[in-house]
Design goal:
The protein contains 5 helices and 12 strands. It is globular and about 55 Å long.
Length: about 260
């Protein structure tokens, strides 16, 4: 049985290893000087999507200065991929991305198709030009989009089997350090995603602070119970140190996995 799991997170098309400011991430004409006012609908968020080629697991993790960020940003389905959708967020980008991957779209084609379908129903308050989302398929191929009107600093960096993205961040060092941490950390993919969140926060993270964090990892028949594709689904909805609390849960899950191997 294949389960679709949803939670809340973030992503722009760029070449491997680059971290670009918002204006450089879009092929559209240079945006006007006036920026979108930062209000509650698009509070700052940073996320990471990742793939483990040895196990086939894909995962996504997020932190934000918003309550219960996991409920809208992060999406995944085993054997299909993961999506993070954030900034001036349209939550439907998550299920749309997974469905397009199942239909055979590449991540790049899925990103283009989702943007083309977006009717931009609230261009003043919730503009399509502020969307940020990342799509990774079940082979670790990833494309990220950061709209030109996502609140500054907004951008992303794509590394080896990962992409880090965020908005209202301290600067590009946040996503740079997240990618470096994911690539240099060993062990289960959950530990690598966790290390990336910690590195992003250490680099300045979301300039508005912290409130919630979440993580989703999926793999076909890799869950604890029968017919369970959810390796772990963790959510810290409201906490003064959400990343530290997420670390506690990730390590608890790791200890349980280790006991099952004995």
């Amino acid at each position: 049985m294949r389960m679709i799991a949803r939670i809340t997170a973030l992503l722009v098309v760029c070449s491997v290893g680059e971290a670009l400011p918002v204006a450089a991430q879009s092929e559209s004409p240079e945006p006007p000087e006036v920026r979108v006012e930062v209000t509650e609908p698009h509070v700052g968020t940073f996320s990471i999507v990742g793939f483990d080629p040895e196990t086939g697991e894909v995962g996504v993790a997020v932190q934000s200065r918003v309550f219960s960020v996991g409920n809208g940003v992060i999406w995944g389905e085993a054997g299909v991929g993961v999506v993070a959708t954030q900034a001036i967020v349209d939550v439907s980008y998550g299920p749309q991305g997974l469905q397009l991957l199942k239909e055979g779209y590449s991540p790049a084609d899925a990103v283009r198709e989702i943007l083309a379908r977006d009717p931009d129903p609230d261009p003043e308050r919730w503009t399509r030009e502020g969307r940020q989302f990342s799509i990774m398929n079940g082979r670790g191929e990833v494309v990220t989009h950061t709209g030109p009107r996502a609140s500054e600093w907004a951008g992303h960096r794509i590394g080896e089997y990962c992409s880090a993205q965020g908005n209202i961040l301290a600067g590009p060092e946040v996503v740079d350090d997240m990618v470096e941490a994911f690539e240099s950390t060993g062990g289960h993919i959950s530990l690598r995603l966790q290390a990336a969140l910690e590195a992003g926060q250490a680099a300045g993270g979301d300039t508005r602070g912290m409130q919630s964090a979440a993580m989703l990892v999926v793999g076909e028949d890799m869950g604890v119970w029968l017919n369970n594709d959810v390796v772990l689904r963790l959510q810290v909805d409201d906490h003064p140190e959400p990343i530290a609390e997420l670390r506690r849960l990730v390590e608890m899950a790791a200890a349980r996995r280790e006991r099952r191997r004995r």
